[in-house]
């Protein structure tokens, strides 16, 4: 086996071991399972981010610009994760029954591929873009994005590696959008 193949096999084994550890960890409170299930479902179709963007857009100036950039980044990350990367990688979803993820954590299992987490990519893209314009919003939005990502593992629909890849992809897409907007803005003012 090649060194790259060996490294990939080790990463997959680590990913599966962390997934199994999360599945086996007892919840400190039933409310945690319920809250993470609700958060994971609320993040479907980026409803949380779109709600925040709508509220930000009500205020003129930087908040409105932050909302627009956040939505552009979110859209870019969503297309990149869900239409491009999932189609190319085609990683199967985890078998949460075999991993013994408690049924109290279950949400409907998506029919799409597992890698990367589109929910996480969109949430981190939005948090990164908005945070670049509104630094005080960066920490809470990034924490929320992290909670969305963890909720996807906790409910058994993603491996931790899917979430990590989604977070990196989302932040990267936000960086691309921000750079493109700066370049267009510079060209228009030149």
Automatic annotation (TrEMBL):
Statement: the UniProt record of this protein carries the keyword Cell membrane: yes
Ranges for domain Phosphatidic acid phosphatase type 2/haloperoxidase: 66-178
Superkingdom, natural source: Bacteria
Name of the featured protein: Phosphatase PAP2 family protein
InterPro entries, sorted: PAP2/HPO, PAP2/HPO_sf
Keywords linked to the UniProt accession: Cell membrane, Hydrolase, Membrane, Transmembrane, Transmembrane helix
This protein's GO CC annotations: plasma membrane
Key word Plastid present: no
Any coiled-coil regions, as ranges: none
Chief location of this protein within or outside the cell: membrane
Single annotated GO MF: hydrolase activity
Bilayer topology term: Multi-pass membrane protein
Pfam family, one: PAP2
Subcellular localization: Cell membrane
């Amino acid at each position: 086996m090649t060194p790259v193949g060996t490294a990939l096999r080790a990463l997959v084994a680590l990913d599966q071991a962390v997934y199994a550890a999360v599945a086996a960890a007892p919840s400190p409170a039933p409310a945690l399972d319920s809250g993470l299930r609700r958060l994971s479902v609320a993040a479907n179709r980026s409803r949380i981010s779109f709600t925040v963007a709508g509220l930000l857009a009500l205020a003129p100036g930087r908040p409105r610009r932050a909302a627009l950039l956040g939505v552009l980044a979110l859209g870019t990350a969503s297309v990149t994760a869900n239409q491009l990367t999932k189609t190319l990688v085609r990683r199967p979803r985890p078998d949460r029954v075999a991993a013994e993820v408690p049924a109290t954590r279950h949400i409907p299992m998506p029919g799409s591929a597992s890698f990367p987490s589109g929910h996480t990519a969109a949430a981190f893209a939005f948090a990164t873009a908005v945070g670049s314009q509104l630094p005080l919003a960066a920490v809470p939005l990034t924490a929320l994005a992290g909670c969305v990502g963890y909720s996807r593992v906790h409910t058994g629909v993603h491996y931790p590696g899917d979430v990590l890849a989604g977070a990196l992809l989302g932040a990267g897409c936000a960086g691309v959008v921000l750079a493109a907007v700066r370049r267009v803005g510079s060209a228009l003012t030149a």
